[in-house]
Amino acid sequence: MPLEPAEQAQLLERYNQELLVAGYSGKTLKMYGIYARQFLAHTNKPVDSIDRGDVVAFLAKKKQDTNAANATLALVHSALKFFFHSFLKKKIVEDIKVPKKAKKLPSVLTMEEVRGLIKATRFGRNRLIVEFLYASGVRVSEAAKIKLDDLDLREKIARVWGGKGNKDRIIILSTAWIKELKKQLKRRKVASPFVFSQKTTQNPISTDTIERIIREAAKKAGIPKRVTPHTLRHSYATHLLEGGENIRKIQELLGHSNLSTTQIYTHVTTDELKKVKSPLDNL
């Protein structure tokens, strides 16, 4: 017999707890739960009787019905692999192959575009957020939950707790940003432990709100490319590298576990170098 709704809910709750203990958070935690729920609904059979064929059938249906991109299939595969291997201790996903996620060069803003984006953002909290994302290179989820206690304004550093992979790290703060932050804190109407709070409550600003702020500013600035909080993270890393900063330091500031993840920015800067015209061609 298939799982009863109450049994399925209990199973998924335990799965969610297992993910939390393993250090998963944010969108990954949410999507892993969604895909596990979809899979159980698709198979509609007892967990003990689920086999490799059921997983393959679900992945095939996902590809066929939604024309899922390789990155999505890889995420579904990872979610089910954790569900069966790490959670249920059932090795049925290990040898199932899915297309590798295509490695695309990140979209990066020019320095002029960053200036335009900041200028197009309304003064106050919103501009402070945009400046912080570019000045520190943090992920949007990290920016949303950073607290005032995490900042050391005298040393011009901040600590990011439990980043991706549950890693803590130190980030640098901009002198100009610190000066503006102090002004904004004096104008706050509602006290909050968070650096970026909602306007009328103590709660932290949502990642959706941050994304909307940046989207609207990019449109106002007339930037033709798609701009997200992660675009500012990419731009931060690329501009540091172009400025001659050591790639190992950039790796630490971004919180990358592997240097290879950071090295993608060397390809971005190489593309910029290719735009330089040889002086010989001007003769």
TrEMBL record:
Name of the protein described by the UniProt record: Tyrosine-type recombinase/integrase
Stored SUPFAM superfamilies: DNA breaking-rejoining enzymes
Tyr recombinase domain ranges (all copies): 104-278
Entry keyword annotation includes DNA-binding: yes
PANTHER family: PHAGE INTEGRASE-RELATED, PROPHAGE INTEGRASE INTD-RELATED
GO molecular function: DNA binding
InterPro entries (UniProt xref): CB (IPR044068), DNA_brk_join_enz (IPR011010), Integrase-like_cat_sf (IPR013762), Integrase_catalytic (IPR002104), Integrase_recombinase_N (IPR010998), Integrase_SAM-like_N (IPR004107), Tyrosine_recombinase_XerCD (IPR050090)
UniProt source species: Candidatus Iainarchaeum sp
Family the UniProt entry places it in: Belongs to the 'phage' integrase family.
Keyword DNA-binding (UniProt): yes
Keyword tags: DNA integration, DNA recombination, DNA-binding
Ranges for domain Core-binding (CB): 6-88
Domain of life: Archaea
Swiss-Prot/TrEMBL GO biological process terms: DNA integration; DNA recombination
